[in-house]
Amino acid sequence: MADLDIQRETLEMDVLFVGAGPANLSAAIHLQNLIAAHNAQSDSKLEPQIAILEKGQRVGDHLLSGAILDPIALRELVPDFKDQGCPIEAEVTAESLYFLTRRFHFRFPLVPPPMQNHGNYIISLNKFGAWLGKLAEERGVNIFTGFAGAAMLLDGQKVVGVRTDDKGLDKHGRPKPNFEPGMNIRAKVTVLGEGPRGSLTKEIVRRLNLDSGCNPQSYETGVKELWEIPAGRIKKGTVIHTIGFPLPADIYGGSWIYAMSDTLLSVGFVTALDAEDPTNDPHFNLQKFKTHPFVRRLLEGGKMVGYGAKTISGGGYFSMPRLYADGLLLTGESGGFLNMMRLKGIHLAMKSGMLAAETIFEALKRNDFSAQTLKLYDEKFQASWAKKRALSLSQLPASLQLRTLLWHDTRWGTNASGRQNSQRPLAA
Fold it and tell me: Which helix (H) or strand (E) holds 138?
C-alpha cells in the first residue's frame, strides 16, 4: 500500500529526542533545568514542548551494559544524585586485570591507569535509565514509550522531525484489521540518541554525508550474563577484567566480571566484529570463557538469571560523524561518544546530552535551529573535558601507549584530513 493512501496524524513539538538512553535523558533534564533557571530571571519566558520517543515499553527496557559508571557527568547533572535515589549497586572497592591461557591465569602487577575504577560505581544501566526517566518526567518532559522512529522527515536537507512505526502489520508488511498508522512528529530540532547502528542515524548520516572525512566506524559485540552465585566467593564492588583466552592474538576482545553484590555477578565478553575469521562468534566466545577454571570456580553451583548482547561502537574520536545539521543533533553512541580504551561510555553519553541541551537552549532563545547555530554543540564538545579524555592516549607514557596498542589491536593510519590517528585506542 502506498504511503500516500495512509492518513497520518501530525504532532507538533519544539524539541524531539529519539531514544531514551542516558544521553537524551540527560539532555532533556539539563534542558529543562536551563529553561527553569532562565524563566525565573527573565520576562521573556521559554515554554517549549519537549518529547522523548522510546521504542521500549518502559524507559530502560533497551539499555544494556556492563556497567561501570564514571560519575563525572552525573555530578554535573544531579549533584545530590545519592539523595535523589540514584540506583547504585556498589562502589568499586577492588580491581584486577588478568591474562588467561587455556588453563592458567596470570595477574598483572598493576592495573593500567585507563582501566582503574576506584571512585566509580557498578550500576544496572536498566535501573539507571529508568531513574533518569523519572527525573525527566518530573520536569515536564513528555516520554512516549512503545513507539519506534521509522523514518526521518526532511524539508530538503533540513531535518523537521520523525515518523513513528506503523502498528498492526503482518509478516509481509501488509495492514491487518488492527492496523494503526504511525504519526508524523514534527520538531524544530531533532536529537538522535539511538545508540550504535541506529536505523535513523544510519539513514541521515548517509543522506547528509555526515561521515565525510571520517574514519569508518568499527564495532564490537558485548555479550552479558547475570549470575547468582553462592556467597563467599567474591566481595561486592570487585572488578575483574581479562584478556587472552578464548581469543587468539589477532582478534581484539576481553572480558569483565563485576560483583554487583556478594552473590550477583555481571559477566560479559567483548569481541571485535572486524576479525578475518568468519567463524568468530561473540556469543560462543562468552560460553568458552566461562569454561576457564578461573571463571568456572566463580560460577559453579550458581544460576544464570539474565542474558543480553549489545553492539559497541569502538572507532573512537576520528570515526565520529559531524554531530549537527539543520534541525539535527547526534548524541551518545549515535555520535560515537564512547571511550573504548577505558571500556566506558555512559559518562560521555551523558555529557554529550548536556552539551546538546546547552546548544538547544541557545537555539530556543534565538529561535534559530540552523546548522550555523547548532554547530555550537561541536564547539562545546571540542572545549570540554570529554574531548580532553578522547585524546588522552597521546598524553600517556610510551609504555602505557604500547599496552593500549596491544589491548586494542591497534591499526595506525592517517585519516582523510592527513592527521595521524588510530582507529581504535582514541575514543570520544
Answer: helix 125-138
> Which residues neighbour 5 within 8 Å (Cβ) at sequence distance 6 or greater?
none
What is the domain class of 88-123+219-312 according to CATH? Answer: alpha beta
Q: What is the mean pLDDT of the chain?
A: 88
How many beta carbons lie within 10 A of that of residue 304, not counting itself?
Answer: 13
pLDDT at 3: 54
For the range 296-301, what are the long-range contacts, defined as Cβ-Cβ under 8 Å and sequence gap of 24 or more?
Answer: 297/233, 298/229, 298/233, 298/234, 298/257, 298/265, 299/227, 299/229, 299/265, 299/267, 301/229, 301/230
Decide: helix, strand or coil at residue 33. helix
Q: What is the number of other CB atoms lying within 10 angstroms of the CB of residue 46?
A: 15
* Distance between CA atoms of residues 272 and 255, nearest Å: 12
Is it the case that residue 399 has pLDDT exceeding 90?
Answer: no
Express each pLDDT in 260-316 by its tens digit: 999 999 999 999 987 688 888 999 999 999 999 999 999 999 999 999 999 998 888
Which residue is listed with cell 534542558?
A: 31
How many angstroms separate the CA atoms of 325 and 189, rounded? 10
What's the mean pLDDT in 394-403?
39
Cβ atoms 53, 18 nearer than 8 A:
yes
CATH 3.50.50.60 maps onto the chain at 3-62+130-216+316-422
Superfamily in which the 3-62+130-216+316-422 domain is placed by CATH: FAD/NAD(P)-binding domain (3.50.50.60)
CA distance 412 to 418: 12
pTM: 0.89
- CB-based contacts of 127, cutoff 8 Å, min separation 6: 60, 87
Helices 346-366/22-41 angle, 10° precision: 40
- Cα distance between residue 316 and residue 330, in whole Å: 15
Give DSSP secondary structure letters for 272-285.
ES--S-TT--HHHH
Return the number of other C-beta atoms located less than 10 Å from residue 118's C-beta. 12
What gap in Å lies between CA 369 and CA 375, rounded to an integer?
A: 10
